[in-house]
Amino acid sequence: MYTPISFTLITLSLFSQLVTPQTNEITELRLMHRVVHPDLPVTPWAELGTVSIPSFKSISPTGSHASLSLAESLRDDLAEFTEAVNPNLQGAMYHVAIEHPELEGSVSSIKACLLPSSTSANIVIHFSATGEPFAIDYSVSPVPQDGICSVTNTGSYPAHNASVVLKSPRMAPLPELRIPPPLTPEGEPVAPVPEKSFVQKYWIYMVVVLGALLISGPAEDSPSGDGKGGK
């Protein structure tokens, strides 16, 4: 035998679990990187760093800055990348990707030969309307205007503490809808009322003026004022 109080407590507990919103906001996001070349074995992914993600509501469509903590093994991984694929090798590419359990991950790719002469890097992470990261853009600077890589003597991958920008989806402007025309019971558009002519608008005033002229009659001739009578 159970007491009504125990049954009430169990019911309230189950109800609170149902109505409590489940928040799965991401607080940290791991970024991975690697170098590839079509004629060489594919190098495994290594951790580039961890991005601290604020609340999704605080992320702006125009961009919100975030901090990146580089991986402790970054310099060792870059040294292994240099041994595996020389950045000055024609066709070598540098990949940066998002590692996330719910997604396969988006990859951003640039020419590996742009890295040795670069001095800074920029990362843009795009979020969906549900707060999931789905795309990443990675770029370095400076970049030659012609896009042709300059051959350097170093031939190594630098460790940049990249600046990170987070972007939420931008809503498209709503279309301007016109008011539909009124319809008849048969479903056809109501024909507009034709505009009246000048006579149709002001005929009543014309009748009043014409009646006043008819009532007043013709003007009488005034007597001559020269003082001369006829014989």
Provide an overview of this structure:
The chain has helices spanning about 5-20, 75-85, 200-215, and strands at about 30-35, 45-50, 65, 70, 95-100, 105-110, 120-125, 135-140, 165. The strands form two sheets. It has a five-stranded antiparallel β-sheet with strand order 4-2-1-5-6. Strands 3-9-7-8 form a four-stranded mixed β-sheet, with no helix packed on it. It is built from three helices and nine strands. It is α+β, with helices and mostly antiparallel strands and about 230 residues long. Helices cover about 20% and strands about 25% of the residues.
**Which residue ranges are poorly predicted, with pLDDT under 50 across at least 5 consecutive positions?**
7-12, 14-23
What is the alpha-carbon Rg in Å?
A: 42 Å
The backbone outline, from C-alpha atoms, is rod-shaped
Strand count:
9
Mean pLDDT rating: 79
Essential attributes:
20% helix, five-stranded antiparallel sheet, alpha+beta
Break the fold down into its secondary structure elements and pairings:
Elements: H1 4-19, E1 28-36, E2 46-52, E3 64-66, E4 68-70, H2 74-84, E5 93-99, E6 107-111, E7 120-127, E8 133-141, E9 163-167, H3 198-216
Parallel strand pairs: 7-9
Antiparallel strand pairs: 1-2, 1-5, 2-4, 3-9, 5-6, 7-8
